[in-house]
Amino acid sequence: MSRLRPASCLVLALAACNGAADPGETQATEDATTHGTSTNATTGPTSDGTGDDTPTTGVTTDSAGEALRPNWHEDIAPLVAMHCRTCHTEGGIAPFGMETYEQTAPWAPAMAQGVELGLMPPWHAQETEECAPPLGFKHDARLSAEQQALFTAWAANKAPEGDPKLAAPIPTPPSQALGSPSVTTKMGSELTITGGSKTLDFFHCISIDPGNTETVYIDGLQVIAGNPEVVHHVLIYVDQTAASKDWTGGVSKDCGGGAGVNAPVQLIGGWVPGSLPIEPPADVGTALPAGSRLIMNVHYHAAATTQKDSGTGLAIRWKPSQPGWTSIFELVGAPGSGTSLDSPFLIPANAEDHVEEYVWPVSYQGQQIPDSVEVRVWATLNHMHKVGVDMRVWVEDRDTGVNTCLLHTPVWDYNWQRSYAFDAPVEGLFRVKGGDKIHVKCRYNNSTTNPGVNEMLQEVGLDAPFDVKLGEGTLDEMCVNGLGVAIKGGI
């Protein structure tokens, strides 16, 4: 995914739209064909090509004369608004909108099947026999069994519309816009991303002047993608000494995996398409020194045609007073901190169950963290590429040896990535101590039984798996967990 030097850090967005896909990589898992349905260009998807699945518009009633349930206005529309519409809006990252009955009803069979299979809404953090996270996650997109049954029954009854006069209140979904930004700024020059060539991945660094004349503390951050067709992922760094201020046009091309400067930097966040704004818990923030700059390492994934980007930028919200907790990020795995238990990193061609595992004793810049310093985990994310199938991260207590699982994504899907923020105030978050061990374990299937491998081979015009090494591009692999932590008072 991202280009990273071993000493660099990676973190994707700290919250994503109920599992947002990159439209440049897939037509979205929501595509009806993926869900075992067929799509008619005129009438929309049908369940199996047999029978009449035409939606039932208007008010239909049961034998007692009551509006048929479940129906759109009373039952389905509120669920769609809360669990689907962050992505499924006109101009959004999903391939179709769900803002009206007319838009949504033709997709009822595909929606029901996706819900039944656990594909929609996409949410890959699971409670398993191996993992019981210490807290729930914010913006949990999963549907209850009762809600899933509503979608199934709605599709089975030809998606009745119901009576708009009886419409249930529509909840407001999480906003993808950062509230009350202090400044919004964008790149200073245009970039051209060449399409149709053998080069699939480009990594350019963009320097942003936030304009703060005094030290401030960031508590909200949002990436604005200028060209969603090619902006694949973004890493965001504080350039503490403004070493990037002299870049021509504010851009350093082919800057590699880090910030592109040989100077003090601090990773503060990242972004994937469809992400919600990065907002840590209350009283948690990141220092932005006066006169410093922000650097975006932008991973552009080439499209079929040459594209241009001149609008990528940041919305930033800050406060003038220092919060009680300082937010930093740490990468554990490959590339990142930790020792490999399976060195060197290599996934042989046709290996169906290959494991890479890393262990990292918790520390800060190579130094032991004193027990007097509180460190709490507020967000976590897993990241592999297309050969990955299962990933788990847990903490081994240095004193008791007890393991606490933070995140398990047992059915990995490269096309749907997100981070997971724990749903608790900072004082109630899981605490790690210096010397605790973070374990990261990744499983890979490098055979043609893995759909991700087939997708990868098709992209480069090959017909057989090849040995996959640790690397920066989409055709390489990673095994890395990003941890967002809050340190009381800072270190």
How are the secondary structure elements laid out?
Blueprint: E1 38-40, E2 44-46, H1 72-83, H2 101-104, H3 108-116, H4 145-156, E3 183-186, E4 191-193, E5 201-208, E6 216-224, E7 231-239, E8 251-252, E9 265-271, E10 284-288, E11 293-301, E12 307-309, E13 313-319, E14 325-334, E15 339-340, E16 346-347, E17 354-361, E18 375-383, E19 388-396, E20 403-409, E21 420-421, E22 430-432, E23 437-444, H5 451-460, E24 468-469, E25 479-488
Parallel strand pairs: 10-14
Antiparallel strand pairs: 1-2, 3-13, 4-12, 5-8, 5-11, 6-10, 6-13, 7-9, 7-11, 14-25, 15-17, 16-24, 17-23, 18-21, 18-22, 18-25, 19-20, 19-23
Describe the structure in brief.
It contains five helices and 25 strands. It is mainly β and 491 residues long.
Largest sheet: 9 strands, mixed
Kindly estimate the percentage of residues that lie in beta strands according to DSSP: 25-35%
**Helix/strand/pairing category:** mainly beta
For this structure, what is the CATH homologous superfamily of the largest domain?
Answer: Copper type II, ascorbate-dependent monooxygenase, N-terminal domain
Instruction: Give the overall shape, derived from the CA principal axes.
Output: globular
Number of contiguous helices? 5
Question: Would you state the CATH class of the largest domain?
Answer: Mainly Beta
Percentage of residues in helical conformation: under 10%
Distance between the termini: 31 Å
Average pLDDT confidence is 85
- Overall structural domain count: 2
Order of helices and strands: EEHHHHEEEEEEEEEEEEEEEEEEEEEHEE
